[in-house]
Amino acid sequence: RDLLLLMTSFGPGFRPHPLSVIFYLQKTQIKEALVQFGVDDEFSKSILSNSHGIYYRFLSALNYGRSNAVHMNEMAILLDADNRTVRNAAECFRRHGLPIIADTAGYYLSQDTEVLCAYYRTAKARAMTCLTCLNSVRQFLKRKGEPV
Question: CA end-to-end span of the chain, whole Å?
Fold first, then answer.
């Protein structure tokens, strides 16, 4: 009923973008999630104040649980953005305290400690592999007398 009222309040023939309705209806849910996960207040306010921004739309598309994950390609379409922008948005939220999981199923939120621990171990292993690869470059530079 509220959705119909929202759509008809703009006049006959008005067709909102399908996501605009979703974004409108989820604002309180997004705010609750940001508070629940302890995301920085200033960052949260900046997200919520710009409902057309990429970060707000990213959060609007996220769901809880792996079975509700949104694949990166789907997320890119929803955000009208490229995959790099999607990855950057997820990274930005992680830096501000929101534990966004990314795996083969896609992006999703979780409060399940087993899921979060598994993601942590996977991400840490990936980071350690990168550091190991950098070590050979570091050793080469040291042999050449370059400061590292």
Answer: 64
Task: Give pLDDT tens digits for 81-132.
Answer: 999 999 999 999 999 888 899 999 999 998 899 999 999 999 999 999 999 9
In Å, how far from its chain's centre is CA 35?
16
DSSP string covering 42-108, please? HHHHHHHT-TTSHHHHHHHH--BSGGG-B-HHHHHHHHT--HHHHHHHHHHHHHTT--EEEETTEEE
84-118 per-residue burial string, b: 16 or more CB within 10 A, e: under 16: eebeebbebbeebebebbbeeebbbbbeeeebeee
Cβ contacts of residue 26 below 8 Å, gap of 6+?
60
**Residue 117 φ/ψ, nearest 5 degrees:** -65, -40
Write the pLDDT tens digit of every residue in 59-84: 888 888 999 999 999 999 988 899 99
Tokens matching residue 80: 């009208």
User: What's the whole-model pTM score?
Assistant: 0.70
Q: Are 37 and 46 in contact (CB under 8 A)?
A: no
